[in-house]
Structure formats: C-alpha cells, structure tokens
Design goal:
Distance between the termini: 7 Å
Number of helices: 2
Radius of gyration: 12 Å
Number of strands: 0
Number of domains: 1
Strand content: under 5%
Helix content: over 70%
C-alpha cells in the first residue's frame, strides 16, 4: 500500500513541475512520497 502511495505521489510531484505556482507543495509531495517508499521497504511487506 505504501509503495502505491509513494509512486502516485512521485508522479504527482513530477507533473507538478508543469504547474510551477504550486511551489512548496511540490516539495512536500516529494518528501511524503520518499517516506512512503522507504516505509514500504523497511516494513518488508509484499506487494
């Protein structure tokens, strides 16, 4: 579940560069996505 959330947030973060006025929100999405992906691998759950 966290892997899917992380992937979705990374995609939204990449799309966010097209809509630059969002500014800080783009970087918050990146941090949340990285935390979600790391959490997925640390807990060791299968997809």
């Amino acid at each position: 579940m966290f892997l899917e959330i992380g992937i979705v947030l990374l995609i939204l973060w990449m799309l966010g560069f097209a809509f630059y006025p969002l500014g800080g929100l783009i970087h918050i999405l990146l941090v949340v996505a990285l935390i979600a992906i790391v959490w997925h691998f640390v807990t060791g759950k299968q997809i």
